[in-house]
Design brief:
alpha/beta; about 400 residues; Hypothetical protein af1432; Rossmann fold; globular; 21 helices; five-stranded parallel β-sheet; binds fe (ii) ion
Length: about 400
């Protein structure tokens, strides 16, 4: 049975939640604590999957509670439930929580959020990796990009569009900004797909606070991580995102899908960055070996880590609440035929763009053994579109 723990010192919460959730979630075992210390006591004896905590509590605030939960039970999904006006509280927990929801909470949204956490578990079966990912707060970016964004934000005259453009080139900043803006805390009906739109939505003050005060982003330490390898992943990701966007546009996809194709392309190999940042030596050797031998990278990843970079990346962005279409595109970008969705959307554009972006124009070889799935294209009757897409790839290469 799925076990969910709610922590809030509001006396009416237990009745209120059991009333709204009890009717729709028969298979959940819902527990309540009205303060942090009691919640920690309960966690010693109960195997809880998801914790949903208020931020402002008298005995121990949500930040302290979630910090301890992250240390002791890294795999537990951490959701912040807070009053919408309490913007500062959200900023304080931006490193700690996987998702946010505002009060009064919408039962359906909360239910979807929690159920999604269980679906994601089936996507990444390796528990050790799930723990590692659940502890991640943010991604360090390229040092030069970080320096650029800091400089822009220090200048009071900087237009918000310039900030959005720099963020849209950075995988780490993009995924974190999208986590925030897509959260139910902001209560927006339509999901914001692109980072430039997200920056406008959050406003420059929030972005300044995140970058300059909270120090959420940083440039990675060059000593521990092979710089050329990270730069390679960044270059390839941006290339894939740009090409996926061009393909989506050429296929007359809806404007939101075009933006999703860009996002999914930018984030599709995020799992590689998770591994590079957490196990630089180990994963670096693996990448080098697959390049030297021209082996499919997933086979080696599966053999060594028991999971592929698609699964790792999709798990992280799913946990952080990004839209399903992007999670799907990341999860199936190498093997789109395995995806249950039966339309050619962001996933299709990313699959094609990725295959083309991996091709080495000098040798004509495929540098990561990534193959275009003709079966997938045939499914949608799109094989005759290939020439047009190749032209787009050549244009973007130039
Ligand atoms: Fe990939
Ligand atoms: Fe790729």
């Amino acid at each position: 049975m799925r076990k969910i723990l709610f922590v809030d010192d509001e006396p009416n919460l237990p009745q209120e939640l059991s009333r709204i959730l009890g009717a729709i979630c028969n298979d959940w075992d819902i527990k309540y604590s009205n303060n942090g210390p009691d919640a920690l006591d309960l966690l010693e004896s109960e195997n809880v999957d998801v914790i949903v905590s208020e931020m402002r509590m008298s005995a121990m605030d949500g930040k302290e509670l979630l910090t301890q939960v992250r240390e002791k039970y890294p795999e537990m999904v951490r959701i912040v439930l807070s009053a919408f006006s309490d913007h500062k509280a959200i900023m304080r927990t931006v490193r700690l929580a996987h998702q946010y929801i505002s009060k009064p909470c919408d039962a359906e949204i909360l239910k979807t959020m929690i159920e999604r956490a269980f679906v994601l578990k089936t996507l990444l079966k390796n528990q050790k990796l799930r723990r590692l990912i659940s502890r991640m707060e943010a991604f360090p970016g390229l040092p030069a990009t970080y320096a650029r964004i800091t400089e822009l934000l220090h200048d009071p005259e900087t237009p918000i569009q310039s900030v959005g453009k720099v963020i849209a080139e950075d995988i780490g900043m993009t995924v974190k900004i999208l986590q925030l803006v897509n959260s139910a805390y902001y209560g927006i009906a339509r999901r914001v797909a692109g980072p430039e739109e997200a920056v406008v939505f959050l406003g420059l003050d929030t972005i300044r606070a995140l970058v300059l005060t909270i120090g959420l982003f940083s440039g990675f330490e060059e000593s521990g991580i092979p710089k050329a390898m990270v730069e390679d992943i960044y270059r390839h990701s941006l290339k894939t995102g740009t090409l996926a966007k061009a393909i989506a546009t050429k296929e007359n996809m809806h404007k939101d899908q075009v933006e999703e194709a860009f996002m999914a392309g930018l984030l599709h190999d995020l799992g590689k960055l998770v591994m590079v940042h957490n196990m630089p030596d180990h994963y670096g050797q693996l990448l080098q070996a697959t390049l030297d031998k021209n082996l499919p990278i997933q086979d080696t990843e599966m053999e060594i880590f028991g999971a592929t970079h698609e699964q790792i990346g999709a798990y992280l962005i799913g946990l952080w609440g990004l839209p399903d279409s992007i999670v799907e595109a990341v999860a199936f970008h190498h093997f789109p035929c395995q995806c249950p969705t039966a339309v050619f959307d962001a996933l299709g554009a990313v699959h094609v763009a990725d295959a083309m972006a991996h091709v080495n124009p000098q040798s004509g070889g495929d540098t990561h053994g990534h193959r275009l799935s003709m079966e997938y294209l045939e499914r949608f009757g799109l094989t005759d579109h290939l020439d047009g897409w190749i032209d787009l790839a050549l244009e973007s290469h130039e």
